[in-house]
Amino acid sequence: MKVAIASDHGGLNIRKELLVLMDEMGIEYVDFGPSTSDSVDYPDFAFPVAEGVAKGEFDKGILVCGTGIGMSIAANKVPGIRCALVHDTFSAKATREHNDTNILAMGERVIGPGLARDIAKIWLSTNFEGGRHEARVNKINSYEIK
């Protein structure tokens, strides 16, 4: 698995925690930054991650900002992206099993680093169930083609 990850200034600390987690899990990743806590615009970091996932350069993506809202909105503008804003472990599992999400968004001002690690670990290790859920995901995919 290869993961693209980025944040804005509001998600810098949790992003750093998630880099450690992926090292521990043996997951290959590319960190899109930013490298400092200077104020940046979240779309400048969400779009490259989402485009990389949509093009198949990465299997999954993770985005972190202050609330996760801006990152998830920006990522979902890229065709082929199913980004879920998640702040609990149940949703992390369900969004992979039922929605085959390919990008996870979280908010550093909403959750702490321990919960963020738990959410990411579950999300990264949960597979899509397919079955009845596949037909629903296919409806989303076909809508984008219109």
Summary tags:
146 residues, alpha/beta, five-stranded parallel beta sheet, 6 helices, 5 strands, 16% strand
Describe the structure.
The chain is of the alpha/beta class and 146 residues long. 49% of the residues lie in helices and 16% in strands. It contains 6 helices and 5 strands, in the order E-H-E-H-E-H-E-H-E-H-H. The chain has helices at 12-25, 43-54, 69-75, 89-99, 113-125, 132-145; strands at 2-7, 28-31, 60-65, 83-85, 103-107. A 5-stranded parallel beta sheet has the order 2-1-3-5-4, sandwiched between helices. Strand 1 (2-7), helix 1 and strand 2 (28-31) form a beta-alpha-beta unit. Helix 1 (12-25) packs across helix 5 (113-125) and helix 2 packs across helix 3. The N and C termini lie far apart (30 Å).
Short description:
The chain has 146 residues and is an alpha/beta fold. The chain contains 6 helices and 5 strands; from the N terminus they run βαβαβαβαβαα.
Largest sheet: 5 strands, parallel
Q: Roughly how many Å apart are the termini?
A: 30 Å
Radius of gyration: 14 Å
The tally of beta strands, per DSSP, is 5
Order of helices and strands: EHEHEHEHEHH
Average per-residue pLDDT, rounded, comes to 96
Overall geometry = globular
Class of secondary structure makeup:
alpha/beta
Low-confidence stretches: none
Order of the strands making up the biggest sheet: 2-1-3-5-4
Strand content: 15-25%
Helix content: 40-55%
Q: Supply the number of helical segments.
A: 6
